[in-house]
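User: Hey, quick favor. My workstation is busy. Could you predict this chain's structure for me?
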Amino acid sequence: MEWLNNMNNALSYIESNLSDEISYDRVAQIACCSTYHFQRMFSFITGVPLSEYIRRRRLTLAALELQTSSAKVIDVALKYGYESPEAFSRAFKKLHGIMPMSARNIGVQLKAFPKMTLHIKIIGDVEMNYRIEQKEAFEVFGLELKTTVIDGKCYEDIPKFWGDCVADGKCDALLKAAGKRQGDLDLIDLGVTYAHSPNGDMSYMMACYKKDLAVPPEYTVLNIPAQTWAAFSVDWNGENGEENLHNTWQRIYSEWFPSVNYEHADCDFDMEIYFGDKESGYGVEIWIPVIKNEV
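Assistant: No problem, here it is.
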């Protein structure tokens, strides 16, 4: 309950300051966590980055003000944080599909994004199996995809990326570079998300451990630092494996983090680790970098 109150208090702070400068550090302080952790939590729970939520709320209020008052476009633009009418008009049209002045026309259709409020949902009847691990620094290399967390697009892009890499032979080429048997995508070692930006953009890598390999220049190499990790088991075997994987990602942020004294470490790598073989069966774990919550 305390976590829920803290999050809703943070949302109320945002709502009260939509026409002023919003401090992400202050938002996180109200939520009793680090700024980095709050932004990661917000994106996973709501499906939209914090910056995008604030942008949508401001443009919602701006449209309402233009529709119901005689305020000048330049005044509304400045009120909601835009330095010029041109920048405001571009953002307004991108969201609403019309120019700001058209918001005053009778019958015009506008988009409204209401204020978010988090509510309790009775959960926890399904256990989450996890352990805390210490792991030394290591390197991986692989194939890179640019995607975004906005509206869950990454959940569509990443499976398609795997399918495309299998179809065009890139997966086999990666396995060959890693000294592994070709033709078996289950031998890929891990999937890594990184380069997370405040606007929701991120990168994903289909990767293998580098170890002492000489990596061909066409591959990206990532250096994963020594870190404390929370490792979560995923029920992978069976026809619902991919759905279980996505559900576990969501539950980590919506159920596990709010119930433990950990938060996401300021480390820009989350991982899916793949293991096993055809004889014993394959498995998947999600590894999240964590630190004890000191707030």
